[in-house]
Amino acid sequence: MITRVFCSAKNTFSLAIRRGMASAKAIEDKIQVDDVKINYVKVGSGERAVLLLPGALGSAKTDFGPQIEKLPDILPNFTVIGWDPPGYGKSIPPRRQFPLDFFYKDARYAHKLMENLSFKKYSILGWSDGGITGMIQAAEFPNAVENLAIWGSNAYIAPKEIEIYESRHSGCQQMVREDEEANGRSVWSGRFFQTLGRMDRCPYENLQGKGW
């Protein structure tokens, strides 16, 4: 099982380095998936596959660089696939959109990506938003997803969290201001917070983010 492998990943990394195992070369390419071109990274040549799902604003290389480099040595029977979700990383265009069902859309795109790469079955590693996408993907395509490992993700919103969301207007504004001061603009766009507002009642009316 994948979960057993990653529980001892630190020791396995060290063992691989001591043995001088050469990492397989990663291939980066784009492929048409329905109406968008998806950028993906592929490394290894195993018959089984593991799909890496990055978090919000992330890409395969920014969120899973070490895994792309080392997993082929640890899992020689796997092909490792990392993707940039539509509107993130090098999967631009399109401009990132945040309809209420954007996690479901990402799950369907990710599944079709694996189908287009000729993987009928695969496992998933999901971080943050990628973990949410992974949970939906496993539920929508149970015959395809063999294993699911996620972290930094939430499956539901508890009553206490709703209280926090409803009181965080000033915090949202402060985050955007600090980002703009540091970078000249904020990557946290008004459209992103509009979606949060519809999903979890986070006030967004006065946010001025200009990203995406």
Question: How many angstroms separate the termini?
Answer: 38 Å
For the biggest sheet, the summary is:
6 strands, mixed
CATH architecture of the largest domain: 3-Layer(aba) Sandwich
Name the quaternary structure. single chain
Total count of domains: 2
How much is the radius of gyration in Å? 18 Å
Structural class call reads: alpha/beta
Please name the CATH topology of the largest domain. Rossmann fold
CATH superfamily of the largest domain: Alpha/Beta hydrolase fold, catalytic domain
Element order: H for helix, E for strand: HHEEEHEHEHEHHH
Question: Mean pLDDT score, rounded?
Answer: 79
The coarse overall form would be globular
CATH class of the largest domain: Alpha Beta
Strand content: 15-25%
Low-confidence stretches: 1-21, 199-212
The helical percent reads: 40-55%
DSSP strand count: 6
Strand order of the largest sheet: 1-2-4-3-5-6
Question: How many distinct helices?
Answer: 8
Domain AB hydrolase-1: 49-204
Protein name: AB hydrolase-1 domain-containing protein
GO molecular function: serine hydrolase activity
Pfam family, one: Abhydrolase_1
